[in-house]
Specification:
The structure is a single chain. The radius of gyration is 20 Å and the shape is elongated. 68% of the residues lie in helices and 7% in strands. With 165 residues, it is mainly alpha-helical.
């Protein structure tokens, strides 16, 4: 099949893109199956697919889809939605998924900062390990401040570029 049903797109080209982009995500540290599912959702015109649609497109089992979607939902990369009048779920990627994923990392960074402060205290600020821990803490505090400012600049840029959301 060379054309996606009703879209006029070359299904083979779409598949190549999905696998290529997924490989880039894997190289950056994402697990392979969530990367493939995310790339498939991102490349779909609707931005959403059912488990069966994902399984068919990617030639993977329902269990593989389920595990991938669980990971992607936990990292705020996709959301789950019920189809009206059905028990089936659709998995959706939103235009602002990167924003959401990064914004939700702030809570993780805060927890790391707390653990690192504890580490500095436990190891002793004057020890080599304590200084290393303090530098790591300072790095995450810096990143957190920059992230907040950067996300605000992104909101303004996004609205200028794509209009109000």
């Amino acid at each position: 099949m060379t054309e996606s049903a009703g879209t006029g797109r070359d299904a083979e080209a779409v598949s190549r893109f999905v696998e290529s982009f997924a490989a880039q995500l894997v190289e950056a540290g994402m697990a392979r199956m969530p990367a493939r599912v995310f790339a498939a959702l991102l490349s779909s015109d609707e931005g959403s697919m059912t488990s069966a649609e994902l399984g068919e497109q990617l030639q993977i089992s329902p269990a593989a889809v389920s595990g991938a979607v669980r990971y992607l939902a936990q990292t705020h990369m996709v959301s789950r939605e019920r189809e009206p009048g059905s028990r089936r779920e659709r998995y959706r990627v939103h235009g602002n998924q990167w924003y959401e994923a990064l914004t939700n990392r702030e809570a993780v960074i805060k927890r790391w900062e707390g653990a690192l402060r504890e580490g500095v205290t436990s190891l002793g600020a004057g020890t080599p390990a304590g200084r290393r821990m303090a530098e790591t803490l300072a790095f995450f505090e810096f990143i957190e401040g920059e992230l907040v400012e950067m996300m605000e600049r992104w909101r303004v840029h996004r609205e200028k570029t794509f209009g109000p959301q």
